[in-house]
Amino acid sequence: MGLKRRPVIVGLTGSIGMGKSKISDKFRHLGVPVFDADAAVREVQGPGGVALPAIETEFPGTTGPSGVDRAKLGAAVFGKPDRLKRLERIVHPAVGRMQQRFLRRNRSRRMVVLDIPLLLEGEGWKHVDLVAVASAPFHVQRARVLARPGMTQEKFRNVLRHQTPDSVKRDLADVVIETGRGRLLTFRTVKSIVKAMR
Fold first, then answer.
1. 194 & 130 share domain
2. pTM of the model
């Protein structure tokens, strides 16, 4: 009896503004299923989200009919590591269950991508076959992030403080996907990963 084949799992990560979403779109374009951890967080915190009751209990007044009030919840945890940890203990298990359902649904595929911003900050990297890091020069990253609505220099610096530096992520990567040197290079790299994994 042959061994059951399972998908090759590519863990896609990268710091804020490095172009992970565009890379995920390219994987999808090539027929590869992608689990978007950020989208999963929005779902569990959105209207009717499974994490809402626990969030409201822990941080009263931060949720409503539309789900989490991002401004209120942000104010409750911003710059407060202990409160952020409490929030993560609510949200991460719910997202983890969604990820497991995604993997079960796609167990017959040749490869899947887990798009996880904090893959290298936690232990998610232990559960993937290949770590792909989205990367761009700092000036490109900075321009992208500061162009976002509501983003400030202070918020940008705070996010960077909580993320592993890009240079370290590049060193830990099995493959680096450049996103600041033209779309063609990015697409070629993604295509080469899909070809190799298949």
1. yes
2. 0.88
Query: Does 135 share its domain with 185?
Result: yes
Q: What is the pLDDT of residues 107-148, one digit of tens each?
A: 999 999 999 998 998 888 999 999 999 999 999 999 999 999
Residues 29 and 115 in one domain: yes
73 and 27 share one domain: no
Q: Are residues 114 and 198 in the same domain?
A: yes
Q: Mind spelling out the 3-state secondary structure of 89-125? A: HHHHHHHHHHHHHHHHHCCCCCEEEEECCCCCCCCHH
Average pLDDT score over the chain: 92
Residues 66 and 43 in one domain: yes
pLDDT of residue 79: 76
The closest of 135, 133, 129, 113 to 121, measured between CA atoms, is 133
